[in-house]
Design goal:
The chain has 16 helices and 6 strands. It has 423 residues and is mainly alpha-helical. The chain is globular. The model is unreliable at 9-17 (pLDDT under 50).
Length: 423
């Protein structure tokens, strides 16, 4: 038996006039620097701003927590529970990632289309949510918790808006709350990375934590490498996009921000990332569509995040023009494919509200893990990622096969159809 999946589509819009008005962009396309997609850094900033402006009105000014229930037509069977549940926490943390990247890229906490500030709800949420004497207290992170790693990432990406405004007492409470997550119990798979997320914040600001406990978990995850930059997902023993927006992403995040772990795991991360990047371009069709395989496909543009995280870590090995061609192609594919709902929220789906891609753990806040796909916004405008002309990837100009032994995959590309197929 074999599995055949294709990364190509015949439904993506050819130009902005063919997509809904809410998705139309004002940024000028550049066919010289971006001959494949036309997208520039301004397109990335504009799209990020539209997404941020879409979710910020859903946050309570009192608690700082979101309510993404939306309209029934866009929510489908995905229910949303208000209050301080896992759904609202994920909605809070995952959107905070994108808000921080937008603020870092633009140098402002103001976003077009929203009167308030982009960081205001999150400061309110962190202040009230970590205070045990506050009625809006989140409660401590329990066993198998994930919430908190996104907050820590956002603080590392843009501390001037998401950490510095807090008082020392508020910072201490948040750090204590982070420490519970770091020293807690997680699912023995990529979910252990959630426990590792706050380590750079605790290190940077001088807070103690159980280094041996969390470092042992990090070491265990590194031992799951099966070859070619791919990792089995713990007990799942599977390979899918969690190698992209999980293993590779967090390894590179820690390589960049966790000094002790760069020293301890740096050589292995450099090696596994380098091998992974040799195979990464084969996962995309010429229209930008990533190979639709595995679970959590509602994360969409997160599939292109490894190249951005690699460049942030100083470990980029691909031509930066090819990196942007892949990343911008994926962003354009999903943006023009209707990832933003009429209510301004990311929908559960692939193109539009396609509920069939939603597993049982998916809810209205889940799709915002797409935020990690915007990590390249941390790269300055003069970085080669933004200034190098787009270069072709395999689906653009290669006819042949490519084997990835470490994940038991074979790819075949057809440049005439702009297609990549995986067996």
């Amino acid at each position: 038996m074999f599995l055949l999946l294709s990364a190509f589509s015949l439904t993506a819009a050819a130009d902005g006039s063919q997509i809904p008005q809410r998705l139309a962009l004002s940024s000028a396309t550049d066919s010289i620097i971006s001959p494949y997609t036309g997208y520039t850094r301004q397109h990335w900033i504009e799209i990020a701003g539209k997404i941020v402006a879409g979710f910020l009105p859903c946050f309570s000014p009192e608690t700082g927590m979101p309510d993404f229930r939306g309209a029934d037509a866009e929510s489908g069977h995905f229910q949303y529970t208000t209050g301080f549940t896992g759904e609202s926490r994920n909605g809070f943390g995952r959107t905070m990632l994108l808000a921080s990247l937008y603020c870092a890229a633009t140098g402002t906490n103001k976003v077009p289309g929203f009167e308030g500030t982009a960081n205001g709800p999150y400061l309110t949420g962190m202040i009230r949510g970590t205070d045990p004497n506050d009625p809006a207290y989140w409660g401590p992170t329990g066993p198998f918790g994930a919430f908190g790693n996104q907050l820590a990432q956002a603080i590392m990406y843009c501390p001037e808006y998401f950490w510095d405004p807090l008082t020392k007492e508020q910072q201490d409470r948040l750090a204590a709350w982070f420490r519970i997550l770091v020293e807690g119990v997680g699912f023995e798979c990529n979910c252990w990375y959630f426990n590792t997320g706050p380590v750079p914040v605790l290190e940077r600001y001088g807070y103690d934590y159980d280094y041996d406990h969390i470092t042992e978990q990090m070491a265990r995850m590194q031992s799951w490498h099966s070859g070619d930059g791919f990792f089995i997902d713990g007990g799942n023993r599977s390979w899918d996009y969690y190698n992209f927006w999980g293993f590779q992403m967090f390894n590179l995040y820690h390589y960049r921000y966790t000094g002790k772990w760069q020293q301890k795991f740096g050589a292995q991360i450099r090696e596994t990332t380098g091998k992974f990047m040799e195979h990464f371009p084969w996962f995309f069709g010429s229209d930008g569509a990533p190979m639709p395989f595995g679970r959590s496909l509602t994360y969409r543009v997160a599939a292109s995040c490894p190249v951005g995280y690699a460049e942030i870590a100083g470990l980029g090995t691909l031509d930066p023009g090819m990196e942007r061609r892949i990343a911008s192609g994926t962003l354009k594919y999903f943006w023009e494919g209707g990832m933003l709902s009429p209510n301004g929220l990311l929908q559960v789906g692939w193109h539009g509200p396609n509920a069939i891609v939603g597993e049982t753990y998916i809810h209205r806040g889940t799709p915002y893990w797409a935020s990690v796909g915007f990590i390249q916004l941390l790269l300055p405008e003069d970085h080669p990622f933004w200034t190098s002309p787009e270069k072709a990837m395999p689906a653009d100009n290669t006819d042949g096969t490519h084997v990835v032994t470490g994940s038991q995959m074979v790819f075949r590309t057809n440049s005439e159809r702009g297609e990549s197929r995986m067996y």
